[in-house]
Amino acid sequence: MSAEAVSSDALAGAALAPHVVADPDHIVVRGLHKTYPGTSVAALSDVELVVPRGTFVSLIGPSGCGKSTLLRAVAGLEGFDDGSITIFGATPEEACAAKSVGLVPQAPALLPWLTVRQNVELPHKVNRRADRRRAERERKHPALSAVSAPGASSGLDAFADVDSLLDMVNLTDAADKHPGALSGGMQQRVAIARAFGLRPEILLMDEPFSALDEFTREALRLQLLTLWQRMRTTVLFVTHSVREAVTLSDQVVVMSARPGQVHEVIDVDLPRPRGADVLLSPQLHTIEDRVRASLQSAWEAGAAPVDLVAG
Ligand SMILES: Nc1ncnc2c1ncn2[C@@H]1O[C@H](COP(=O)(O)OP(=O)(O)OP(=O)(O)O)[C@@H](O)[C@H]1O
After folding, report:
1. Which of 59, 63, 71 gets mutated to test ligand 1 (max ligand atoms within 8 A of its CB)?
2. For 275-280, what is the mean pLDDT?
3. CATH number of the domain that 41 lies in?
4. C-alpha span between 33 and 148 (Å, rounded)
């Protein structure tokens, strides 16, 4: 999957089902079911989730509980069998078509022949060309304007310009280097700067730090916090790290497996910005313990061995 805003011209079938109420301020997932062909157990079953605009929400749970499937469904990249998803009142397909959805996958997927600066700038250049087509689509489908981020696509504002973005992720000195000359952590920072620079309305991050060592992860968490604090993009973040989920999030969604379901939603009631005082506070450790306990009961709930692939 690409790190750029998900692009799709697929508007076919974008109309909401009559029973779905468009909510302009939330991502709303209702009764989502998904069973992959050839499997006997649902990857997602009756998943309910409400994500308020401008919040940072982490999905955590045992391997195979459907975190990536849910993320891809929200991105409009994965179909589902039943239920509904609305993104600030629009369908995932509409949000994709409006380039309102950004994705940061595990691997940074940079273009090796471009410099760091050119990699971060590239989507803006591409989007400038797409803007005319997008304006035309929005005229035909007014619901799309409701999910377009202010300053989305080519509209760089005061702090979303490339220099500021590179500065926020500490890459100013590497701006003219090529990806091959960067460490894994630096490459992921380029991918994150590029994704935020597009000013998507929502950013979906699928274990973006999983390939990195703990020291680098810690540093990237702090940089992501700084970036998010300024951008306030709505983020759905998949992780296996309790520390990461609690440090970054307003809410941690604990999922259970077999079938994939939301087990518990835990509020992270910690002040922002999250400086050292917050990150070392006993309150943070208390919330981490709550998440760990919830993960344990989620694991026990889905622990029964089941053959996932029929036949
Ligand atoms: N393309 C596919 N075909 C068949 N089954 C699939 C497919 N993709 C995922 N699954 C199954 O769906 C379930 C959910 O997978 P998913 O990747 O969403 O889980 P996850 O929570 O993201 O896992 P992990 O933490 O290991 O990345 C798993 O049982 C997985 O085996």
Report:
1. 63
2. 92
3. 3.40.50.300
4. 27
